[in-house]
User: What shape does this take?
Amino acid sequence: MTTSVFTHNPALQERILEEARSGTVYFNWCNDVHPEVAWSGWGRSGNGMAAMSELGFQSLTRAQSIVKALPCA
Assistant: This one.
């Protein structure tokens, strides 16, 4: 679900971003989840949807519009 890489080399960071197959990529950090950030796996890990964050909430809900005509006075 996550990839953690410890490097300050910008070229290597870009290469990792292009090749990583995980929902979250950490650079010089690991094992910390922030509620503002979607957190999910790309493979068969987890339940296949982003947890936490607005994106996570939207993946667990379905919009429904309800329109009611008001009676004429």
